Automatic annotation (TrEMBL), chains A, B:
Pfam families: FTHFS
Organism: Pseudonaja textilis
Domain of life: Eukaryota
Protein name: formate--tetrahydrofolate ligase
Assembly behavior: Homodimer.
InterPro entries referenced in this protein's UniProt entry, alphabetically: Formate_THF_ligase, Formate_THF_ligase_CS, P-loop_NTPase
Length: 784, 784
């Protein structure tokens, strides 16, 4: 009959105590009024529904989050709490014993009196006060919850760009990032929603999606490009420059969602991918190296599945049905039992028995033999290293593998289907389902064999449980960035994750912007963004920013070859309006491609020092005449967000345009039809031509029930056609489909247009020659 | 002429401001009195020496850390600060302008007056108060610094063991761990010294070693074992139980230093390695999975080096000297320049020219050609997966590799020499040096080719820059644990890291204990601990705890075979004093082995439910008669720390015994002699017998200048001899050395006694069948 309040509670102690209280028959209900660190959905969810008196805690949290009762409970008063109790639970309160855990003070006394008048008995509970560590008042948490949809109160980092622009790593190192937990608080993340990884990175938990599920989404902006030169035209820098302009200069909440780069190219040819100049994610070395280990987790999961395939094949080849069965369903303490994943397989096989002793010889045979046809194995091993000697290898040559060797290959880790799954998944349970559905080969009867059949789904999900959480970092100007997933842009869809975009759209609020990027030109990355990623997410983009450079346009207009590592010819460094104007054919085509999806397009001309004012004006004029909503020059590389303010304004206006978003094709069309639509409507091909292998694969996938998946074309990004040397807008060509493969877990069919290398190599002089670590300062040198 | 104090400062802002002040000619000196989050050596180091008035800040920090002026500055008073100033800097203070940054309050006023009387002008500085975020008073930091060598004020987690003992994962999940930053504070780590990875793991920075360099080390305890059964005899659980007893029950500061387990066995056969029962590291799934990514970093570094070897060989085989040179030293902005790592190689080649244009054809040839003899390549690729099909493979079979295929293998990641380096290194610069010294093959002239020759040292160091920091976790009872490195225990030394031990020895303080574990029996892990790890660290162990079980002793006494996965025969579950007493021969021998190193030994008998009191007494009596300092039964598995208190008391007493530690052999002896000493004095062999291959390798290593390295024997752990089936104390055998290899970066020669598998396989029913993730609770199931 005495009330007890507790000054401050610690999450881990509270949850433990609540779990005890859940089982305590003397307590009828709990009303939680906790300190900031503890007032979290994790704790509230720990309360058993029947102990949560008529949903009072839910009610509290929901209301507090939406802010509509904040005026009466900040600071909380006994009267306000009682009002809530009366409103929600008066009919059931009488005679109940309710435990109050909350902020101590005068509140407690009056609350106790009032509750007793309502017929509620309050009970005491002994807490170990010494263990209680966190000390912040509930009101701070309420403030965070209430500000969710408002303009962030962000302390941006100021930039003083210098000229000439220093190296990327020098600029990155010159700016001290905000501690990441401060940025997280500034954008409305609760303490329990982040997992800090050092000072500059944090993973964000998916529980945020549940907390903000009723919050409206912000505007969704895709950055795509024209057909690029081999040097790239700056989509990443535009993406970062744009959010720097929006948030640091125009004070509009915005988020950039980027792909995690592979470590292979970082040490090989390309260098880092954190943006460049004064538009970067910092610290760039953290971005470019292990980050929070997602790619390593993918590698581990991918290779566990690969090892399971070959080991299983070996065991099936060397053991009788009975021996296999005795090992697969072993005697433990004198009893045989199926594991959960084995019962699921039995169900798929149509065997409904639960007792391992009762299976017939035929059922045992069906159960123990996957009968993988090793010539059909499509699952490859991966490493996140440019290792050309692994492009084709023979495995299983040790005596212990008894002659069952076979030829296979390693891919670069980001080409793993598991990376594509990570980018498209919507939740932990969806990811687990997709992992189980991965088809690794056919069996000797031509039926698909999955990861689930190998019994490895759960282990793959366990390996990926942290990778599913996006990583929060910041731009050079202190604005937030999500880095999450980075699937290959040819054999996969080349877009960052659906989950990062969804989290960011909630965090920026209705008036905010989320800017994400699609790999390669609009014909490749954007087409896949719309037809694959948007289909998976259900999100509708508001604006497409199309990035072009005078350099690339001159190339399309007939300028000389652009080759990485070779100095540019003078056509590219001197004014040449003819080449620019001719090359705008590619720009026009890419604008038209975008318009087929019904989304307004803004041209962002990434300006180089050598571009003349006349060239810049010409491109912008042509773009506007070609149907772009607006066209603006951008100087983010040399100026940061300040150099992209015009683009930010144009994007803001475009986002208020009417949106007629539509997919390009109906999923129910036959695979061949879907391929033809993309070839003709996007690439401008006259038709497609299937090789016999491609046709046979299409038949197989259709027959296996995978015909209604979207299409992920594996085509060169250096031309709208399949011929990299054809610049501008090639016409009249027939697109050859050499083969067709499937990523069933990720959920797409990928036709191969020519050969695609899935393992880069190291050149004679790899980047690593210049990369070094100063052991005294711990600073990384030579990344760019 | 006005003084300014600042309420609270934020590290990144403070450093930025200090850097400005360093350049400000109007300020002659800085005296820092900062809030807790900011009062760090990082900040203090940011102050230019000439601005640091006569070392006042250094003086402050040094004194505060050692606690000898704490009585006058906790809480800080103006008089105390002035006393310091007078004592340290009075001769130079007159006429100086000094900026005071510190905690606001009455102190400031009196300090200002006093300073002015001393002729010091104080100046004001405008801080952006809005950005200041961290709010804890200086006195907390002082308290942390002062308590360093005292007993920790640890909030231990209480255990309520139940019987029968539930599964490891159930016990682990039943205990909510303390947030890791709280544990870090409790043991005296400063905020700037940890990098949080989620709620339960943190990396600890090596700067701690510098801060506590004058602090005396605690006592150093090694847990080793008798020759084990294939089931293992519980060294990890004893290690964890012992620190639980010391810290949670006897209130003595202690640390466990453990190896990070490979993920391969976690999903394969063995399961996790976080201890077991009520002696575990929690959360055990975090311990057993990615942890903080160290093994992934090793994999990445190992495989980058491997890729570099084959790519370089290909490029040398397919290009002229001139083409290679033009690519290796490319024209950038019209100029060729050597990179730092290339200049270092030139120096090794005896070429002193700096200008790439001046090299002769012969010098160019020497410079561009490593001439790797591919038949001598000893560097293998690695994965952290049990993938038996990678035990022997052929690589380079794609057309792009132009026929330069070769046979090679993958090892499990923890068998990488880089793992052995991580465990033995003493600093970032030492690690970088060791990475550069890795010998990957001989050239065609028989000279060693190193990672440094390939130009990849810096990149390897960059990949390993975070892995070098040990990971802090906790036991089931909330006491601290370091997890760091986990090299293979046969081809490498099988011990956790030198750095973790060193950090822990400082943190526990003079009266505290650090308990670490050596893989396999004392003949293997302990011998390597003493002769390799202690040589690398210079540390001297105080006590050896030798773990035995009645089960293993019965096996040595002639009991039936013990096989993993097969139920134990009745000899092992029923009392059998004869078998026990006969088997104690192995125990006696392992005690004698330990005594050769001059360190007191305590026998820990890991008690099983089926052991009879008579059996337990018998073992303890024999151990004491055999020279053990003490011998005690341990019940940590079923009782946690409470079950190991007797052991803790025995260890405490043994640590005060006189220590006559000595190495087993002199490094300057010939390789063959060192091998013979180990074989005879440790294993009890009559002699050794070298194969011709082994003899030729020894000659080669000796000739290459590697003859004075310690020896790391690769021998079965299941017998004192090379024959796993020979239990007890085999005698009269000749130890065959089939081959000899070298890990030059790690710093040891490893003779192979028979064949060693460096890649485990997956059995018919791998552990992963039972591993699953609950998508709703995010809980891992089925780990054990």
């Amino acid at each position: 009959m005495t009330a007890l309040s507790v000054d401050c509670l610690n999450l881990w102690i509270v949850i433990g105590e609540i779990e005890k209280l859940n089982e305590d028959p003397r307590i009828h209900g709990l009303l939680l009024r906790l300190c900031r660190e503890s007032y979290t959905s994790k704790i509230l969810n720990a309360v058993k529904p029947e102990k949560d008196v008529n949903g009072i805690t839910d009610f509290n949290l929901a209301r507090l989050v939406h802010g509509d009762i904040c005026e009466c409970v900040v600071p909380p008063t006994a009267r306000a709490v009682i009002k809530l109790l009366e409103k929600q639970a008066c009919t059931t309160l009488d005679g109940k014993k309710i435990l109050l855990l909350g902020v101590q003070g005068p509140l407690e006394v009056s609350l106790q009196c009032l509750l007793q008048r309502k017929g509620v008995m309050t009970m005491s509970l002994s807490w170990n006060m010494k263990q209680l560590q966190t000390m912040v008042n509930i009101s701070s948490e309420l403030q965070i919850a209430a500000q969710q949809s408002k303009e962030w109160n962000l302390s941006c980092l100021s930039l003083q760009p210098i000229s000439p622009v220093p190296s990327d790593i020098e600029i990155s190192r010159g700016q001290a990032p905000k501690p990441i937990h401060i940025l997280a608080k500034e954008i409305g993340l609760l303490t329990e929603e982040i997992e800090i990884y050092g000072q500059t990175k944090a993973k964000v938990r998916l529980s945020l999606l549940e907390r903000l599920k009723d919050q409206p989404d912000g505007k969704y902006v895709l950055v795509a490009g024209i057909t690029p030169t081999p040097l790239g035209e700056g989509k990443s820098t535009v993406t970062i420059g744009l959010v720097q302009a929006l948030t640091a200069h125009l004070k509009i909440n915005s988020f950039a969602c980027l792909r995690q780069p592979s470590q292979g190219p970082t040490f090989g040819v390309k260098g880092g991918a954190a943006g460049g100049g004064y538009s970067q994610v910092i610290p760039m070395e953290e971005f470019n190296l292990h980050l929070t280990g997602d790619i390593h987790a993918i590698t581990a999961a991918n290779n566990l599945l690969a090892a399971a395939i070959d080991a299983r094949t070996l065991h099936e080849n060397t053991q009788s049905d009975k021996a296999l069965y005795n090992r697969l369903v072993p005697l433990v303490h004198g009893e045989r039992k199926f594991s959960a994943i084995q019962l699921a397989r039995m169900k798929r096989l149509g065997i409904t028995k639960m007792d391992p002793k009762t299976l017939t010889a035929d059922e045992i045979n069906k159960f123990v033999r996957l009968d993988i046809d090793t010539s059909t194995i499509t699952w490859q091993r991966v490493v996140d290293t440019n290792d050309r000697f692994l492009r084709k290898i023979t495995i299983g040559q040790a005596n212990t593998e008894k002659g069952f060797s076979r030829q296979t290959q390693f891919d670069i880790a980001v080409a793993s289907e598991i990376m594509a799954i990570l980018a498209l998944t919507s939740s932990l349970s969806d990811m687990k389902e997709r992992l189980g559905k991965i088809v690794i080969a056919n069996n000797t009867k031509g039926q698909p064999v999955t990861a689930e059949d190998l019994g490895v789904t759960g282990a793959l999900a366990v390996l990926m449980k942290d990778a599913i959480k996006p990583t929060l970092m910041q731009t050079l100007e202190g604005t937030p960035v999500f880095v999450h997933a980075g699937p290959f842009a040819n054999i996969a869809h080349g877009n960052s994750s659906v989950l990062a975009d969804k989290l960011a759209l909630k965090l920026v609020g209705k008036e905010g912007f989320v800017v994400t990027e699609a790999g390669f030109g609009a014909d490749i990355g954007m087409e896949k963004f719309f037809n694959i990623k948007c289909r998976a997410s259900g999100l509708i983009p508001n604006v497409v920013v199309l990035v072009a450079t005078v350099r690339a346009l001159k190339m399309h207009g007939g300028g000389p070859n652009v080759i990485a590592g070779v100095p540019l010819k003078k056509e590219y460094t001197e004014e040449n309006l003819k080449l620019v104007s001719d090359g705008c054919s590619n720009l026009l085509k890419q604008i038209q491609i975008t318009q087929q999806f019904g989304v307004p397009v803004v041209l962002a001309l990434n300006v180089f020092r050598t571009d003349s004012p006349a060239e810049i004006n010409l491109v912008c004029e042509i773009a506007k005449q070609s149907g772009a909503f607006d066209a603006v020059p951008c100087r983010h590389w040399s100026e940061g967000g300040r150099g992209t303010m015009e683009l930010a304004e144009a994007v803001r206006k475009a986002a208020n345009q009417q949106n007629n978003f539509r997919y390009l094709y109906d999923l129910e069309l036959p695979i061949v039809e879907k391929i033809r639509i993309i070839a003709q409507k996007i690439y401008g091909a006259q038709d497609i031509e299937l090789s016999p292998a491609a046709q046979s694969q299409i038949n197989c996938y259709t027959q296996q029930g995978f015909g209604n998946l979207p299409i992920c074309m594996a085509k060169t990004h250096l031309s709208l056609s399949h011929m990299p040397e054809k610049k501008g807008v090639p016409t009249g060509f027939v697109l050859p489909i050499s083969d067709v493969r499937a990523s069933i877990g990720a959920g797409f069919i990928y036709p191969l247009v020519g050969t695609m290398t899935t393992m880069p190599g190291l050149p004679t002089r790899p980047c690593f020659y210049d990369i070094d670590l100063d052991p005294d300062t711990e600073q990384v040198k030579g990344l760019f």
